[in-house]
Design brief:
Layout: E1 21-27, H1 34-41, H2 45-52, E2 64-70
Antiparallel strand pairs: 1-2
């Protein structure tokens, strides 16, 4: 049973289990940039930074980056 106060409507929350997250690892190669990797995997640069604890735009050759994709 849902109790509503005046002027509100019920919200349906989607359980997190509905979204499967696939994780991949990418090894940085010479010439790679966060922007280029983000385009290759169709994810925002900010997400790459968050998933990998990166502040700024500096990455190193050989560094392994976590890439997540929601399906």
């Amino acid at each position: 049973q849902v109790s509503l106060s005046s002027g509100t409507t019920p919200q349906t929350a989607r359980p997190a289990a509905d979204e499967a997250v696939q994780t991949a690892t990418y090894q940085v190669e010479k010439g790679d940039t966060l922007y280029g990797i983000s385009r290759k995997y169709n994810v925002p640069v900010a997400s790459l930074q968050k998933w990998n604890g990166i502040e700024g735009n500096n990455i190193r050759v050989g560094q392994k980056l976590i890439i997540q994709a929601n399906h």
